[in-house]
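Quick check before the chapter quiz. The format below is the same one you will see on the exam, so make sure you can read both the input and the output lines.
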Amino acid sequence: MLKKEITGMKPINKIEKQQFELNESYKQSLRNKKERDPINNKIIGIVDGDVLIYRACNKAIKDNLDVRKTFDNIYEEVKMNTACDEYSLHISGGGNFRKEIKQDFLQYKGKRREKPENYLECRDHIVRNYKPTMVPKYEADDTASVEAFKYIKKGQLYMLITLDKDWKTIGGLFYNLLYNNLSAVSKIEGIEFFHQQLLTGDAVDNIPGIEGVGPVKANKILKDKSLNEQFEAVIKAYKRHYPEDFLSRLNVMGTMLYLIKDFKDHSKWSIEYWRNYLNGIQSKKI
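Here is the expected output.
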């Protein structure tokens, strides 16, 4: 059994309730695996440190608090709520490989506001005292994904702790810091969410996707299709909207949205790469 019962974490609306119920069988399979494999029966929490930094900075400014102590308290509260056996804290390193990609379709994270005035103080405190995972040119999203896929190969249980919906493309136990609830995202669901992002883009990171395509239209395009069929539908949608440059445009969107699985594949994403990846999944009947 998980250390913290999930029954007390109630979804906030009907849609989340349905998603929560759909994932019950997946969560049960994780519990069963934990009982069968005592070597890997601990749960490792993979924590989005970037989210906690901003939360601490904003609270410290609002309430006139020491930002370092504020972060410490917030992180301890996260640990109490999630009750994992171990934790791995991730913060973004300096620079970003996505901003170095030559393309004319978007300005990655171009709409982000300036960092809070106490941001560096908080970040330095974390680096000195918590020894977080941070790799130059990679975001916390990427390093968290790399760690998670390492655990997937080992059969190690983990919990993604964030409010960033992009982490759902990784799959696994997902603790939402905004609503303080726990759900589970299967590998298939993670890929389906990525396909939706290819269509809708990501406004937070200034990734446009296809203009005029939101979640409703995206769901209509992807509904009742296999993963391979979904991706072919994505390609057709790009070709229909951008006939002159749909291939290069889709390759850029995919590269920007894709969370890497190891530090060698950040430049690998392409239409052909993703087709081969999906074919590999299909052949294994995952």
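If your answer matched, good. Confidence is low (pLDDT under 50) at residues 1-12, 14-22.
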